[in-house]
Hints:
The protein is of the alpha/beta class and 376 residues long. Helices cover 36% and strands 26% of the residues. Residues 8-14, 31-34, 40-45, 50, 117-118, 147-151, 153, 167, 209, 211, 258, 275-276, 283, 286-290, 292 line the site of flavin-adenine dinucleotide.
Amino acid sequence: MQDEVLILGGGVAGCAAAIALARKGRSVTLIEREPTPRHKVCGEFLSGEALEDLHALGIDVAALGAVPIHNVRLAAARRAAEAPLPFAAASLTRKALDTAMTAEAVAAGVRVERGRSVQSLSRTTEGAWWATLDDGTSREAPTAFLATGKHDLRGHTRPKDPEQWVAFKLYFRLSAAQYADLGDASELMLFPGGYGGIQPVEGGIANLCWVIQGRHLARVGHRWENLLEKMKRDCPHLAMRLEGAESLIAKPIAITHIPYGYIRRSTDEGLYCIGDQAAVIPSFTGDGISIALHTARCAVAAYVAGEPATAFQPRLRSALVAQMRLAEVAADGLNNAFARAILPFCLRVWPGVMRVTAKLTRVTQPSAAAPQMVVN
Ligand SMILES: Cc1cc2nc3c(=O)[nH]c(=O)nc-3n(C[C@H](O)[C@H](O)[C@H](O)COP(=O)(O)OP(=O)(O)OC[C@H]3O[C@@H](n4cnc5c(N)ncnc54)[C@H](O)[C@@H]3O)c2cc1C
């Protein structure tokens, strides 16, 4: 039996779209390559917009143990500055979030096929979308949602990442004193060639996630242990946080080649691209999940309203472009040697800058009267 919609990738964007479509009575098959949800490279910060979208989907993050985050701290070298977040935020492991979203999709009636990787996606001569899976079988539907996140499908690739960013994530049990000192804050740390963040997640542990440009990783012999030691030397605040900490994973999970700043310009008829397949915002803004949820919601609204994917995708692009460019400028600033040199000044003005940047780099929520999406 052929479903109306095929969703490729069951992360936040794919699950959110699947849930919304199934609730609107559409028959949906979602294909996810991982047999069960697992840890993903992510800072696991949920912005206010993400929390609103998750709530609307019926995901109760508090019941899943999400930790409320009220403050943000910026640390570089020996200095740190703190500002209250101008919106509600929380943190929750991706494993817990993805598990809950998949369960919600199943409950909504989505046919979820896990442990099957999509190898290729092409159009049939009748104009349907045809996905070939790794077991040699195929699935077909008139409409497809591409939600494979960082991973490109053959024939649907995004431009290469010139900086060759590499991202890592580790979980730590901090010492009691450091855990108390971290408190309800998300801490952003700067070091040459990259930046990272540490924040509490459920279960009394902390997530340390960081990104580094490929050439800086090469300078430490491509070894994450050397890199972490260098980061601690460059940012003593991180060394302090990790003093007496127990690492809960033997080695970090990592991903490479993240095309930060990418926004998809166009698509093919019947193919809606969402989440990181629509736009990849610099990690430090903690906005990727809310963009994934937002683009899923907008794509579902467009599909249900009969707006062709070829009209929707450029419209989505123009709605996101200002926010994306601002986030890029802010991320470039953090990575710039001059910016680090004037850091003492930056830290003095940080609370004000943080409040403004945090507001400007948010996904704008549509009002109740205009439920589709924001257009510039
Ligand atoms: C270092 C780093 C830190 C980040 N920190 C944060 C943060 O703190 N807060 C925040 O909001 N955002 C953060 N982000 C961004 C956020 O993680 C992403 O924007 C978000 O996960 C995108 O959701 P998605 O559904 O598009 O992709 P994903 O959540 O990655 O889901 C894609 C899914 O597709 C599946 N898949 C891939 N290929 C195939 C295939 N061929 N066949 C079938 N399935 C496939 C994958 O297994 C995966 O489950 C961070 C990103 C990075 C790199």
